[in-house]
């Protein structure tokens, strides 16, 4: 099932799955999606969290064994795998595929990748994730979409804005979602 990053909170309020796959190019949306999943995981008693970041000569045997070393008294396991390049290689593809096939019932797996190129979408590990995971799409917010995104974000925080002010806000933040979020947070601190 594929959902957008702004649908994630509603999805998690209704159901909590064991596999999530976050990918895209908008860093803010990726960070917020991951934070939303982490909060939901905490509420669902996933307390034994391990994070792996794949780079260079990553040791995939760590991933292969990540759910095998369960403590008798530990909480439910939560594993995050970050693949910034979106290219885990042959061994990585095998490890991710095997991990999903043998995922313990009470485990949570979150895979975070960057933009998926056309060739990457054909990779076995991506196909397996697309089949078994809730896929959170953090696609690019284009300049034509940015004013609407910004206006919706302001509404979330209970702030209204007229058209001229919105145009100025868009110009000042130059389409940068992180700068826009920080600017909104500053407005909230000033209690505008």
TrEMBL record:
GO terms for molecular function: DNA binding; DNA-directed DNA polymerase activity. The keyword DNA-binding does not apply. Residues 20-138 form the DNA polymerase III delta N-terminal domain. Keywords: DNA replication, DNA-directed DNA polymerase, Nucleotidyltransferase, Transferase. One of its GO terms (biological process) is DNA-templated DNA replication. It holds the Pfam family DNA_pol3_delta. SUPFAM superfamilies: P-loop containing nucleoside triphosphate hydrolases. One of its GO terms (cellular component) is DNA polymerase III complex. This is DNA polymerase III delta N-terminal domain-containing protein. It comes from marine metagenome. The lineage of its organism: unclassified sequences, metagenomes, ecological metagenomes.
